[in-house]
Amino acid sequence: MATLCHSAHTRTFGKIGRRNAAKVLCSTQMPPSQSTIKVVIIGATKEIGRTAIAAVSKARGMELAGAIDSQCIGLDAGEISGMEEALEIPVLNDLTMVLGSIAQTRATGVVVDFSEPSTVYDNVKQAAAFGLNSVVYVPKIELDTVTELSAFCEKASMGCLVTPTLSIGSVLLQQAAIQASFHYNNVEIVESRPNPSDLPSQDAIQIANNITDLGQIYNREDMDSDNPARGQILGEDGVRVHSMVLPGLASSTSIHFSGPGEIYTLRHDVTNVQCLMPGLILAIRKVIRLKMLPKIHNLAASSRWKPNTCQQYSGKQPW
C-alpha cells in the first residue's frame, strides 16, 4: 500500500489580514489487483505435459496448481519436468481433490487436458462443476465429442477451447494458405513426419479443408487419382498431399502454390514440443474470458472428409 501526501497552499482572509496556510492532504492509492491463474495439467507425465509444467510455472500471472496422471504418482511435478527446483506439487491421480482445493480459494482456474479422447468429456464436465474452464489439446478427439462439449458448455455457460493445434506457426501457415489460394490455381501439400502415424496428418487435413469450398478447383490439368505416385487427393477441389515418413526427420509441412511463371512456397518446421508452449499460454489467457466453446472452423469442418479418404480428426498424439 502506497501513501501519497500532497501539499496544498490555501489563502484565508480574516480580521487579522491575509495569511498563507498549508494544508496537507493525504490520499491512499491501492495497487491494481492481479488475479493469478491457477492451472491444472492432466497428462502431466507426457512429454507435452512435462514441458507445459515448466512453461506455466515460468509464465507471468500463472501458477501450477495441480499435475494429474496415472504415472509417477507422488513425484514432484517440478522434478519430473527437469526444473532446477521442486515445485512442491506432487503428481496425483485424483482430479476431484485438486479441483476442490482450487474452488475453496475462489481463484481463477484453468484445466489443461492432454489426456485421451475417451476421458475428455468427463474431465471438462468435472472442471466446470468446480467453476474452471478448460483447454483441450487431444488430436485424436472425435467430432461427436466436440459437439457434445459445445452443447454442454453453452448450457453451463463455461468456457472451453478444443484446439487442433497449439502451434502459432501452424496457424499462421494456414492463414497464409487461405490468402494465397485466391491467387493460384495449382496447389500441393508436402509433409514429413519422423514416425509412422495416420496419414495424411491432421495439419495437412486442416490446410486442405481451409482452402476447400472457396470457389476454386485446383490442379485442373491433372485430376487423375489412380496414380499413387501423384499423392492423395483430399476433398473434391483437387488438393493433393504427399507424405514422407523418415526416422530422424523433423516434422515439416510445405504448401506449394504455382501460377504462370512462378512458384510460391509456404513452409513450417517443428523441431520439438517447445513450439506449442506460446500457443498454450495464449489459450489459457483466452479461455478464462469465454462462456462457451467457440466454433472452431478447422475442427467442425473435418467431417467433410470421407472415411476412405482419411479418418475424421485422427492422428496419433505427436508428443
Automatic annotation (TrEMBL):
GO biological process: diaminopimelate biosynthetic process; lysine biosynthetic process via diaminopimelate
Pfam hit, one: DapB_C
Dihydrodipicolinate reductase N-terminal domain span: 37-161
Keyword Oxidoreductase in annotation: yes
Domain Dihydrodipicolinate reductase C-terminal: 170-288
GO MF term set: 4-hydroxy-tetrahydrodipicolinate reductase
SUPFAM superfamilies named among the record's database cross-references: Glyceraldehyde-3-phosphate dehydrogenase-like, C-terminal domain (SSF55347), NAD(P)-binding Rossmann-fold domains (SSF51735)
Gene Ontology CC annotations of this record: chloroplast stroma
Keywords: Amino-acid biosynthesis, Diaminopimelate biosynthesis, Lysine biosynthesis, NAD, NADP, Oxidoreductase
PANTHER family reported for this sequence: DIHYDRODIPICOLINATE REDUCTASE, DIHYDRODIPICOLINATE REDUCTASE-LIKE PROTEIN CRR1, CHLOROPLASTIC
Family: Belongs to the DapB family.
Protein name, entry field: Dihydrodipicolinate reductase N-terminal domain-containing protein
Organism of provenance: Oryza rufipogon
